[in-house]
Design brief:
It is built from 4 helices and 10 strands. The protein has helices at 22-33, 62-73, 149-156, 206-209; strands at residues 2-6, 43-44, 53-59, 78-85, 93-103, 108-112, 120-131, 136-142, 180-188, 195-199. Strands 1, 2, 3, 4, 5, 6, 7, 8, 9 and 10 form a 10-stranded mixed sheet that branches. Strand 9 and strand 10 (195-199) form a beta hairpin.
């Protein structure tokens, strides 16, 4: 497998924009680094939203892809994020449980307190790590992996992520990013069967820089 620290703005997989996806960039890197002639295999295991930064895992063999897919779908991985939010949550730490309903036309998920038709249960745990002048730094551990889960659930408690216009922040970041970063990932290596922990440095940005 290969683990990348994705920049905000990169797309993990090709989409209708036609922009060069990260998967193709990584394929080129592997072909060059390992001198591989012909097509390079690279499996997309999971995705990060385009404006988000941080850890993305790709599989370099079909066997690894099958095993990693199983691990992610059966929640055998541990994913931890950092987010900068406006309006600190009312408690220093908590578990959020919502039912998310996706609207594909808007590419948005709506959080409901009770189950509604076609909704999926979403669970995350957060704690406030630091209060800055205008924002709060949250550590978030996901229990489920739903579409736009962190963005939607934080918006539902009136703590939208900085720059996330789609989910209630009042203005976008100049570069189109949002202040959400996939910081830490724990998983079992698909071949070696050893536990591995990856940490991704934060983007170089004045606000992130005061979070360490």
């Amino acid at each position: 497998m290969i683990v990348i620290n994705k920049r905000p703005g990169d797309i993990v997989q090709g989409d209708k924009t036609g922009d060069l996806p990260l998967s193709e960039v990584v394929k080129e890197y592997i072909a060059e680094k390992y001198n591989k002639p012909g097509a390079v295999f690279l499996g997309v295991v999971h995705r990060l939203d385009r404006p988000t930064s941080g850890l993305v895992v790709f599989a370099r063999t079909s066997k690894a892809l099958t095993r990693l897919n199983k691990m992610f779908s059966e929640r055998e991985t541990e994913k931890m994020y950092w987010a900068l939010v406006k309006n600190a949550p009312t408690t220093p730490e908590d578990t959020l449980i919502h039912y998310l309903k996706r609207n594909p036309k808007q590419n948005k998920s709506y959080a409901h307190i009770k189950e509604v038709p076609e909704s999926k249960k979403a669970i995350l745990h957060f704690k406030i790590l630091k209060n800055l002048n205008n924002y709060s730094l949250l550590e978030i551990v996901l229990e489920t992996g739903r579409h736009h889960q962190i963005r939607s659930q934080l918006s539902a408690i009136n703590s939208p992520i900085k720059g996330d216009l789609k989910y209630g922040f009042d203005r976008s970041n100049p570069d189109g990013s949002i202040h959400l970063h996939a910081k830490r990932l724990k998983l079992i290596h698909p071949v070696l069967k050893e536990e591995m922990v990856f940490e991704a440095p934060l983007p170089n940005d004045p606000l992130w820089n005061v979070c360490y």
